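Each record in this resource describes a single protein on a pair of labelled lines. The shape at a given residue is found from the number at the same position. The record below illustrates this layout:

***
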Amino acid sequence: MSSHTDEPEPSPHEGEHLPSQRDEHSAVPADDPFANPGLPPHEPRRQDIDEQAAKRSERSVSLLFALSTLATVGFIACYVAIPIDKIVYIWPFGHVSGLNFGLGLTLGLALFCIGAGAIHWARTLMSDEEIVEERHAIQAPPEVKAHVLAEFRKGAAESQIGRRRLLRNSMLGALSVVPLAGLVLLRDLGPLPHEKLRHTRWKKGTLIVNESTAQPLRPEDIVVGSLTQARPDGLDPHDENFANEIAKAAVMLVRLQPEDIKDQRSAEWGHEGILCFSKICTHIGCPATLYEQQTHHALCPCHQSTFDLSDGARVLFGPAGHPLPQLRITVNDDGYLEALGDFEEPPGPSFWERG
């Protein structure tokens, strides 16, 4: 009786890789039944191999940038030449404002041509080869930073911005001119103030009238410790410019005991303890007419700027930048209070040209 050792029969597929035993360098991962096709081979564009085609693309892009420049000039011309009340018929929109239509059309064309020129430049002349890079940490090591700088320089060279001067110069021209459209629109903020902020309706001989009754004021109408709001005579509340004028000319009168007035110049500008100040806060223009009788302080309710009316209306507290301007007053032959001129300083908030 012979003995023998049982051995497993060889597999019919011995020598072949099973799916779980595939080589790690195999193109198909063990857990992915689909192979990664990768990027397709790069195919050069016509402009990459034909300099004449590249020149045509350069001229096309430059033409778009030139059209943008002309459209910006047209925008400015429309703004200057077309009356604001001009109505025109434009199919299919019907009757529209000629100015708005002209501005919208020219500005839209200017921006479109810049965008279209940039896209055409990128698609026909800049490098279009796709490159895949693995993500890296947010803080790149020095060698990666050096690589990025090298790639940036390479990209700048491949964009051909240094080589194709016509394209570069036309683009710079369009980008330089198109901001003029925005500058022109700033004109709609209104006319320049020039000297308007420095002058009010007050002048020598102007009567001071009560804000509530519109009647001229006499010294005896103002008692010690009181505050009276007033305006210049002749300023009609129904006039279309009333709001603009009263915003500069509104005043308040207080009467103090002469010995309570600390500023000698302020006392000389008043009459028998009656002082006249602009009531327009020098912060943002709110009426600073909350009066505290015992301290002679005027408070602005908007941001709590506080002025000492017994000391030339100097600022005691708050964001106001300078004292309330004082109006020099006297009494005329008829016994009414009147101004001896305009404010020495512009009333109201500070502005750029203020000294």
